[in-house]
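input
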Amino acid sequence: MKNPEIFAVMVLYMCVVIGIGIYFYKRSQKSAENYFLGGRSLGPWVAAMSAEASDMSGWLLMGLPGVAYWCGLADAFWTAIGLAIGTYVNWLIVAKRLRNYSQIAGNSITIPDFFSNRFKEKKKVILGISALFILIFFTVYASSCFVTVGKLFNTLFGFDYHVTLIVGAVFVVAYTLIGGFLAESVSDFMQAIVMIIALVAMIVVGVVNAGGFGAVLENAQNIEGFLSLDQLANPTVGEGGQQISQNGAPVFGAAKEYGFLSMISMLAWGLGYFGVPQVLLRFMAIRNANEIKRSRIIATVWCVISLAAAVLIGIIGRTLFPADEALNTASKAESIIIVTATKYLPLIVAGLIMAGILAATISSSDSYLLIASSSVSVNIYKRIVKKEKASEKQVMWISRITLVVIALIGIIIAWDENSVIFTLVSFAWAGFGATFGPIMLFSLVWKRTTRAGAIAGMVAGAVSVFVWKLVLNQFLAASIPVFGIYELLPAFIISSIAIVVGSLLSKKPDAEVVEEFEKAKKGEVATVAEQV
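output
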């Protein structure tokens, strides 16, 4: 086995993560609310940093640096800007309102619960639709985490990709079954600290070994379009990956144009935050709405530093490894942080960073599995099938069975070892952003929003993501550039229009719904006033 020292450090690190799960086991098993929402007990630091770590995970440490390494600054930069803005605005607009409203609306413990209770629906249509789409998109999300684990162990130790894929999935399921929401939130907090330390450390190590920042800048400027914000570098790829010239340099073609539509497309990543359950649940779980301002500052600072560091690692990597066989495809390029750490750091330190990647990925994937399983066990089984007659024990067993099924499907999706983490995450992110983002915003700020509008918006958003990505983008983007836009943006707009039209064409909300809306609004205004 290659790198046994790194393997030993990673095993020790994961034992700490498992210990966290065991520590919170008894507390998590007391009730479904404790298991799925931690009893609404998160402090500002844990809420903020666990929200960001559960969202970013292996995608931040591998996917984003890989994009920057492969085709330069533009794609990664505009994506990072969109995500940073989205993080701040989400904490500013959604966090307080959702924390208060979710408790007022039937003490909701899941996102589908909140939507259903918000509109006082008797026939649980919204509940069923939202639970179904959570299940679909989180299965894709979980598969991206499994890909990260497979690539990590394959690159580091030479283990078979498919074997480590399966082992990683089994570990994630076991860990999720033990600890529940509170354990994953605390471990995510730990991962957030490790992730930002690892990213900053890799920048320092990379710049020093590249011969200084001037050398990095000179190398990047020699690649056409690599540092441009309106062009993309264009690696020349053959059967064996990126082509190498006779003098050993990587071959690039003429830079590709990166126009206004592409910039808007990547900035649209920020819209996804309004609909991703793993972040929204942290808002619902905060122990005190008065602490959200502090959480917003913590989350935004962490996000900006981490995103900037991830992009820089990819840029620096092109100087350190201009033509490395281990990085010669878009998929392999996502291992740039692994290759850099193992070559330039002491093995124990490299092991800690690799353990951070693994633990962040696993703690994120257990977030996805936990939320997806709750959509089946709580929202579908308890609320719809059993009509509130299911026992806590039955709900927990259905959740466990669902975890296993989702993991199996995720393994199937991730089976192709050439899978690109960035691509998998972008599709799931668009699905959540367009399906739940618009209705979350309208539910919190527009009291005229109706149940019919909510249903229309969710269905329109989800369907638009699939149609845009799998049909319009695939077959028409080459001839009509507008169809090349990231599917989240048009789907988000279509969903918003559907909500407005559906709401205006349907009967106004009942007095009880309006009364709860005003109650939540007054509570939110009072909280803001206290902080000003």
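quick obs: The CA atoms of residues 282 and 301 lie 17 Å apart.
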